[in-house]
Amino acid sequence: MHRVDAGESTLYQPDYTRLLFDELRQLIEEHTREQLQAELTAIAEEIEDWQEAYGVETWEELEQSLADGTLSSTEIRERRDVIRDWQANEEDRRLIGHALELYSDVKAAREQMLDAAGRATN
User: Fold this and answer.
1) How far is residue 120's CA from residue 59's CA, in Å, rounded to a whole number?
2) Cα-Cα-Cα-Cα dihedral of 23, 29, 35, 36, to 10°?
3) How many Cβ atoms from other residues are within 10 Å of residue 99's Cβ?
4) Please, is 71 exposed, middle or buried when counting C-beta atoms within 10 Å of its C-beta (0-12, 13-18, 19+)?
5) Alpha-carbon distance 82 to 28, whole Å?
6) pLDDT of residue 44
7) 42-61: pLDDT as tens digits
8) What's the rounded Cα separation, in Å, for the pair 59 and 78?
């Protein structure tokens, strides 16, 4: 959270940059590079399955199909669920991509920190 002065009142709002970097660090610390790569593969496969199943390339195209007058309410709900999952997958893919880009740097920085801490306690 960070503080924002707004006239006579003070507001607190999330520090979205900090939240992003915390999430990236968590991905890197909790998963191997191979696990992250495997997750990217799983995401790509799921999106490819949706593309084939619905005959679209993007979730936006799938969203446009909701107005098709021939769809039942069940089919519309199913497509809405897929759209939500597709959007989440794209966000996850973006975050995992960033984590992989930073993976070596974060691991090296962590090693340096642990080495410095080890020397300080000896």
Assistant:
1) 52
2) 30
3) 21
4) middle
5) 28
6) 98
7) 999 999 999 999 999 999 99
8) 13
C-alpha radius of gyration, the chain, whole number: 21
pLDDT of residue 109: 83
Closest CA to 86 of 53, 47, 57: 47
Q: How many Cβ atoms sit within 10 Å of the Cβ of residue 122?
A: 5
In this prediction, the residues of the chain whose per-residue pLDDT falls under 70 are 122
- 79 near 62, Cβ under 8 Å? yes
Residue 122's pLDDT is 67
Secondary structure E strands in 38-96: none
| Spatial separation of the C-alpha atoms in residues 116 and 121, rounded to whole Å | 9
Best CA proximity match to 30, nearest among 118, 111, 103, 112: 103
